[in-house]
């Protein structure tokens, strides 16, 4: 997106079935906030998979570089599992580039089981499933 305002409008629209972009999927987006009310991360739950999401999966998350290796990603993923279950999902598919050992560790800590691999932009990514 070209601006924060445009991005906020997009995630707001994609959070409601009536306004979701037809080229995207219904998506809930959450910010992770620390004890000082600073944004340390973001995580999104995609309610269905289509197109390129068939490889990339239900979850997208990121933690601020200065806040990595502090357990935020593991906790964010743990919390969104309940949201996914409440939304009626029985399992989640997640992917991570094979070289992203921290993300793979986060997925496995939350019950991720390796399923398959795929190539994206010349890199190998692994796909995991978490049963809810």
Spatial arrangement of strands, main beta sheet: 1-2-3
Number of helices: 4
Distance between termini? 32 Å
Query: How much helicity do the residues have?
Result: 25-40%
3D shape: globular
Strand content: 25-35%
Question: Secondary-structure element sequence?
Answer: HEEHEHEHEE
Helix-strand category: alpha+beta
What's the total number of strands? 6
Rounded mean pLDDT is 96
Q: Give start-end ranges of low-pLDDT stretches.
A: none
Instruction: Give me the oligomer status.
Output: single chain
Q: How would a textbook summarize the main sheet? A: 3 strands, antiparallel
Question: Gist?
Answer:
With 132 residues, the chain is α+β, with helices and mostly antiparallel strands.
Please write out the topology:
Elements: H1 4-13, E1 27-33, E2 39-46, H2 53-56, E3 59-63, H3 72-86, E4 91-97, H4 101-109, E5 113-120, E6 123-131
Antiparallel strand pairs: 1-2, 2-3, 4-6, 5-6
Written overview of the protein:
The mean pLDDT is 96. With 132 residues, the chain is of the alpha+beta class. It has four helices and six strands, in the order H-E-E-H-E-H-E-H-E-E. The protein has helices at 4-13, 53-56, 72-86, 101-109; strands at 27-33, 39-46, 59-63, 91-97, 113-120, 123-131. 29% of the residues lie in helices and 33% in strands. The termini are far apart. Strand 5 and strand 6 form a beta hairpin. The strands form two sheets. A three-stranded antiparallel beta sheet has the order 1-2-3, with helices on one face. A three-stranded antiparallel beta sheet has the order 4-6-5.
